[in-house]
Every structure is written in structure tokens, then in C-alpha cells.
Write a sequence for this structure.
């Protein structure tokens, strides 16, 4: 499975929640999208079934010592989720 080969561990924190959970995601740095504010972004590809709660804008992702805020979520018909997140700080 591609995720098992290229996946990286992330810590996902729903906005306003006190608990976090661990997921495996494929991370990719995209080209700057015109409709987003300036900054450094990362795309995270995951399976919707891996989330104990639905992802939402404003949630936080941490990976490789960096933190990101979720700014856009796109689900596909095959159970995948693509999250665009902006690096904090």
C-alpha cells in the first residue's frame, strides 16, 4: 500500500478538543495556490476511516517538529481526505 511506503506519522488535534490522535498521512508540499494567503503549506492525504471525529478547518497537525493549521478539506468518493494546512509561525 502506498501509505505504508510513503506515509509519515502525524499528530492530529481537533480544534477546541483536549485530546489528540495519531494518523499516518502522505505529505506533499504543493505549489502556492492563488486563493490562499501567503505562507508555507502542506498537503496531507489520509483515509477518512482513520479519523475518530470528522476533520474541520482550524484543526492542528504536527509532524517532523512542525505545526500546521487546517485551512481546507476535500473528501473523495473512495474514502480519501486531502487536507491543505498552513504552517504556523
Amino acid at each position: 500500500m502506498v501509505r505504508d511506503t510513503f506515509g509519515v506519522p502525524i499528530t492530529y488535534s481537533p480544534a477546541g478538543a483536549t485530546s489528540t490522535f495519531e494518523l499516518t498521512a502522505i505529505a506533499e508540499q504543493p505549489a502556492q495556490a492563488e486563493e490562499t494567503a501567503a505562507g508555507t503549506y502542506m498537503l496531507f492525504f489520509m483515509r477518512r476511516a482513520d479519523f475518530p471525529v470528522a476533520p474541520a478547518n482550524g484543526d492542528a497537525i504536527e509532524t517532523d517538529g512542525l505545526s500546521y493549521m487546517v485551512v481546507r478539506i476535500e473528501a473523495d468518493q473512495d474514502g480519501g481526505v486531502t487536507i491543505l494546512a498552513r504552517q504556523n509561525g
